[in-house]
Specification:
The chain is α+β, with helices and mostly antiparallel strands. It is 42% helix and 30% strand. Helix 1 links the parallel strand 1 and strand 2. Helix 1 packs across helix 3.
Amino acid sequence: MPKTLEVTLIGKPGCHLCDDARAVVERVLAAFESAHPGELDIAFTELDINQDAALAERYREEIPVLTLDGRVHNYWRIDPDRLRAALDNAL
């Protein structure tokens, strides 16, 4: 049974950096899953700070924020190479 990795993108609608981050994350996750089928169960979730006052208070000035298993991995601009390395390390 593969390990599960929770990948969460925290942002809000209308945020161009959030849109850019989503595109990077989706591209990296798709390439990783294609290269490592069934080796890591990746659960990708998006959270909107407009729908959660605690998230808004905590991350308002940092969105988009990417967390891996609940820990902040990156914010503002998502580095695809850094994300790939983190996914490789999660194996």
